[in-house]
Fold this protein.
Amino acid sequence: MGAYEPTHCEVVSVEPSYEMIAKRKETMATNVQGFAEKLPFIDNYFDVAMAILTIHHWSDIPKGLAEMQRVAKRKVVLLTWVDDSPKFWLEDYFPKIREIDKRLFPTIKELNQILGRITVEIVEIPYDCTDGFMCAYWRRPYAYLCEDIRKAISAFARLTNVNEGLARLQSDLDSGKWHKKYGKLLGLESLDLGYRLVACDRRIA
């Protein structure tokens, strides 16, 4: 596959699955089939390379990040998760979730070693977040009982048995136990659950 050369100011996304590409709407940004570990772009073409909650799915994170640095002239930007974050109440029902994510996500120290000098900003999740990542529904506990929502959260696919946790969550919501323990969250507009915006300026790294 030859290197793709985008037009000026074009936003291009990368997707490894032809099936997922076929589901995209024609009005969306240009999409190219490819893998993070071998981006089909020429060197230094893009101003910025960005990865949003995806690096934990890569087969080789250092190689993927090196590829982002190769194609970006100015910045590499990541939205990722770090383990040194407040406990999420979902762990009461699915205690293996943090252990799973801890194995998959690199630490800030590791990202700094790979990318060079980085900046890190806390990204709090708004209570009405429309994306479907794991902690998006922190103020909407009933959402996790929906199978379609869980299907969009990769951590659930890695759990061996979710029925017990779902049953306890349903029971605690019905009895009011969840609200007694976590009801104070319902008054918050946003919450820090470990998501971080990591940026590396290629011009000074």
